[in-house]
Amino acid sequence: MSSLDENRVKKALQRVEDPALEHDIVSYRIYKGCEVSGNKVLVHVTIPTPAYPKDARRELEKRITEALTQEGAKKVTVKAEVETAWIPPPSDKMNLQGPKNVIAVAAGKGGVGKSTVATNLALSLVRHGAKVGLLDADIFGPSIPTMLGPPDKPAGTTPDQKILPAQHHGLKVISVGFFVDKNEAVVWRGPMVHRLLQQFLQDVVWGDLDYLVCDLPPGTGDVQLSLSQLIPIAGAVMVTTPQEVSIIDVVKGISMFEKVEIPVLGIVENMSYYVCPACGHNDEIFSHGGGKRLAQETDVPFLGEIPIDSRIRFGGDSGVPIVASLPDSEHARCFMDIASRTALGIAERILSQPKRSPRLAVIR
Ligand code: ADP
Question: Phi and psi for 178 in degrees, rounded to 5?
Fold first, then answer.
């Protein structure tokens, strides 16, 4: 067998599939290069999201080691660095100066748990080690201040009048609810909504973020349109409950996102089933599986299901969402998995595109 060199290493690694992204690590730019010294190889890889699952990371190292051992390597070391995949905005969109990927969390109708999912998704990304912001853009019913508790106002302003977001469990947060009275109805027309969003995006000191999660109002309205015009959105997470009345409206939501060219990263089925804490009986209060079926029919990924559970409701009402209050619970793990799949979905969309020069890049 000829001696190992960079070419042979690269060729061998072209046959290695990334366990989380299910594509070869060379064309997906996970493999960054190597250093060969006799039969010892040091392989550099880039993990494209902090939410990359730990078991997949171990499996990736195993696959690389096996592939190179077959080529005659006696010692293989894999050096992994996490670098969140993103594409700088095209010139016709606002440059957010900080947030790399914007994730829109949307639902066809109110009350399905969209804000619960947005908050726990954002907190899960933080727990995965990402830098994350949460923008409550649910102008007509901002519930993030209730879900996260005090402080329910910005942390302050800078000398040049920029807004410093509130901090909750390592998450940077801004909500419309910070600026309007709780009991006051918000009656704003399209241009006002547009200006407010513009201000939240431009005048908030988000800093360097891997993900900015946006909790959108339910339905298909001005906020969705304005956001899609203002900034590139990495993708949308659609939240639904399993029953038909909720599913129908999600179909409309997906169709709207397609029209404004925002990729749908997947569907989350909330209030999926109920396990009685007394007897363990599993009850499908709102039916079950509608979200998964819809994902198959519309050909978008299914990101996961969350049961109906009083601890999730309590977390939302008491200001400490379940991912923060019970991080090791089964339900918190559901959110952690959904966050991983969402982040991997973004990485997959970016890495499946050929590398472009930043000036021409568009996340679509
Ligand atoms: P939306 O943003 O879609 O209007 P919310 O996230 O505000 O919905 O949720 C509505 C209510 O349902 C809240 O009281 C919330 O705590 C509760 N809730 C949401 N998801 C669950 C769940 N999986 N189990 C129990 N209660 C939930």
Answer: -70, -20
Instruction: Report DSSP state, residue 24.
Output: B
**Does the domain formed by 6-86 have CATH 3.30.300.130?**
yes
pLDDT in tens, 268-313: 999 877 777 777 777 776 667 777 888 888 889 999 999 999 899 8
Any residues with CB less than 8 A from the CB of 196 and at least 6 apart, and which?
139, 176, 188
Domain range list for the chain: 6-86, 99-347
pTM over 0.85? The answer is: yes
Architecture of the domain delimited by 99-347: 3-Layer(aba) Sandwich (3.40)
Give 40's strand partners: 37, 75
pLDDT of the residue at 356: 56
What b/e string do you get for 256-295 counting C-beta neighbours within 10 Å, with b at 16 or more? Answer: bbeeeebbbbbbbbbbbbbeeeeeeeeeeebebebbbebb
Taking a C-beta distance cutoff of 8 angstroms, is the pair 24, 79 a contact?
no
Three-point CA angle 196, 198, 203, nearest 5°: 95
Biggest CA-to-CA distance, the chain:
76
R_g over Cα of the chain: 22
Spatial separation of the C-alpha atoms in residues 122 and 114, rounded to whole Å = 12
The one-letter code for the residue type at 292 is: K
Express each pLDDT in 173-224 by its tens digit: 999 899 877 766 666 677 778 888 888 888 999 999 999 999 999 988 888 8
2 vs 78: CA distance, rounded Å: 22
Residues enclosing ligand 1, CB less than 6 A? Answer: 107, 110-116, 143, 270-271, 306, 308-309, 312-313, 316-317
Task: Ligand 1 pocket test: pick from 313, 323, 334 the residue with the most ligand atoms within 8 Å of its Cβ.
Answer: 313
